Amino acid sequence: MLAGSLYYSTIGLLGRQTHEAIRVDARSLATHFEAGGLTALVITLDSRISEDINDHAIYLLVDPLGNRIAGNMSRWPQGITTAHVWYQVPLERGGRKSTALIRYYELPGGFQLLVGRDVSTRAQLRRILRDGLLWALAAMAFLGVLGAIVIRGLFKRSLADISGITRAIARGDLTRRVRRSGNGDEFDELAETINDMLDRIAKLMDGVREVSNAIAHDLRTPITRARTRLEDAASHARTSEELRNAVERATLDLDGIVNVFQALLRIAEIEAGARRSAFRDIDLAPVLEDLAEFFDALADERGISILRNWPKSIPLFGDRDMLQQAVANLLDNAIKFSSQADKVTISAHAGGGRVEIIVADHGPGIPEADLSRATERFYRAESARSTPGSGLGLALVSAIAQLHGGTLLLEDNQPGLRARLVLAQKDETRPAAGQPEAAASMAG
Known about the structure:
The chain is of the alpha+beta class. Strands 2-1-5-4-3 form a five-stranded antiparallel sheet. Strands 7-9-10-12-11 form a five-stranded mixed sheet, with helices on one face. The chain is rod-shaped, with a radius of gyration of 49 Å. It has helices spanning 2-51, 120-170, 186-236, 240-271, 284-301, 320-336, 393-403, 437-443, and strands spanning 57-62, 68-71, 86-93, 96-106, 112-118, 280-283, 305-309, 315-318, 343-351, 354-360, 407-412, 417-424.
């Protein structure tokens, strides 16, 4: 389009300039004829022909009978019969062929005048410009095709590598990764993103295997114990009371298994975001006070005191029951692993759009090497092997924190464990004040 516009604008400009020059020249000659008659016109024509250094001007003046009077043309060209019409005719001037743009004018007294310009140079320029644009178009087409072939080859190689990796992964080989060229281009960014995704998938698969192994390991003992008790009662129970006691003990073992599966289902439900329908604007301070009072009795039995520190009001948008369970799990762990006369501290504060709940104890704590894995399902450090539990408490707290736009951070309290539950104070997906409730439901 640019080449075509350049061609037509250039040639059109030259054509308009030639037409205008002929019109101006013809008007000037007509003025001389009106003012001085035929003699003045002939003198003017001879003067202009002599002054035309480039020999581009073309004139011919004939009488009513067609006889030449003045001009630089020897005879009247064929085909020129109508006045005030543009003609482009071939000429032979000075032994060379050329092309002229001519216009025919009728003068008073039957005289006829031809005024024109030699446009062979313009035609030559048009041919040069046309050929140049055609060559440029051919070069553009060639480079375009060549570039398309090169880019197609680059895409083909890169995508072939990605396709090969995905096929290998589909066959179960999660160790393969997309190669990076090291150029830092978009293909490297894509390879890095895919590799991060594969690392995440591999980590999740490892987590699934670990959870499956942990379920098989942790549930095998209570199931075997319940089965043994029932078989022993069926074979050796002498009275209905002995049989009832055996069934009750087996039922307790099975209830523990049911609780483990309920905890797993709840973690999965929370991670899937299915519990956000219960989110409300709440005040966290009364929730913490109720939990502290509830656990006071358990702490007093073990000679442990619970220290409190939080403001009178802590506004928060979240699920009251889940937050209550999360803090309860942290308090239960703190009391469970504390020794007699120890102190457990629960504190909270809000600021910067975040709410932070801290539960700290002075028990054995968690080794630094195990802190990063403490929130994994069924993971239990060596120091906690002899303590009752399923290893799902911190995993549940972590899931609740993530659902509330926050995280669970575990730190060394020197000695003991310091658990920081950081939550988002507001839900960013909710509409601003004054917006209709329909927008809120759509955002949800």
